Amino acid sequence: MKDFADSIYGEMIQNLPDANIPFKGVKGKLFQGENHQIVFFVIEAIGEVAEHSHGAQWGVVFEGEMDLTIDGVTKTYKNGDHYYIPSGVKHSANFKKRTQLMDFFEDKDRYLKK
User: Fold this and answer.
1) DSSP conformation letters of the chain
2) What is the share, in percent, of the chain residues with pLDDT greater than 70?
């Protein structure tokens, strides 16, 4: 997997702590707030991320694309597209190419530091 140095993210983001992400081919940099968190992702062409749910999530795709299914409705999101997943709503994703995106999570502990 390519390192964050090969990403679109500048040094300020590259220097954030690594997020402990349980998916092979997915790396993230964690910006931790008191009541929420933001993760800057680099996701290789890993295929499917299984359906799951958690607190609300807002995200934006910076580079690449993903097929995101929210509550049974699938849409393709590309550079500049943003999405919102309400709290508790089931969703899944499919990554067919390397994608860089940012997610803002309502859950302050969605991901922990590595």
Assistant:
1) ---GGGSS--HHHHTSPBEE--STTEEEEEEE-SS-EEEEEEE-S-EEEEEE--S-EEEEEEESEEEEEETTEEEEEETT-EEEE-TT--EEEEESS-EEEEEEESSTTSSEE-
2) 98
Here the tokens at position 77 are 């999101």
Rg value, the chain, Cα: 13
Q: For tokens 């309502």, what's the residue?
A: 106
Residue type, 94: N
Q: What's the predicted TM-score (pTM) here?
A: 0.94
Residue 8 CA to residue 16 CA, distance in Å, equals 14
pLDDT in tens, 3-39: 788 899 999 999 999 999 988 999 999 999 999 999 9
Longest dimension (CA), the chain: 37
Domains, the chain: 4-113 (2.60.120.10)
Nearest to 77 by CA among 110, 41, 108, 23: 41
